[in-house]
Amino acid sequence: MLTSVATVLAGLIGVGIIFMGVRAFWAPQAAAGFGIPDTPTEDRSFRAWLSVKAVRDIVSGLFVFILLAAGTTQLLGWFMLAASLIPVGDAMIVLRSNGPKAAAYGIHGATAVVMLAISLLLLIA
């Protein structure tokens, strides 16, 4: 039962990551929600870097679905555990950029905790 819940939650994380990547292409101003103050979404160079991040987000989300389709629960759990470091790094970037602590802890920190919980549920299955 817990494995099924964790698997569904992992799939939702994958959907969320893909959504964020796609949104960065079509609505770059949404990048301001990341938590970095004065996000220069009209700057062409910034948009290029945002596109790089967008591609990586989309592919990271696809990895979740590849592992859901062809991997084992344990493998998905290890991937989710490793991937939980991404929002930890994002939180550190926001804090280092003097961004809002609410974004660092409330968005990125909470995402890391959820991903960690999902990975643990998958690994103990």
What does this structure look like?
The chain crosses the membrane at residues 6-26, 102-124. Pfam families: DUF4267. InterPro entries: DUF4267. This is DUF4267 domain-containing protein. Keywords: Membrane, Transmembrane, Transmembrane helix. The chain has 125 residues and is mainly alpha-helical. It has one domain. Helix content is 79%, strand content 0%. The chain is built from five helices and no strands. It has helices spanning 2-26, 44-70, 73-83, 85-96, 101-124. The protein is globular. The termini are close together.
Fill in the keyword field for this structure.
125 residues; 0% strand; 79% helix; globular; mainly alpha
Number of domains: 1
Enumerate the spans where pLDDT stays under 50 for 5 or more consecutive residues: none
Q: Major sheet: size, sense and barrel closure?
A: none
Radius of gyration: 15 Å
**Helix content bin:** over 70%
Topology, element by element:
Elements: H1 2-26, H2 44-70, H3 73-83, H4 85-96, H5 101-124
Helix pairs in contact: 1-2, 1-5, 3-5, 4-5
Transmembrane segments: 6-26, 102-124
Keywords: Membrane, Transmembrane, Transmembrane helix
Organism: Nonomuraea diastatica
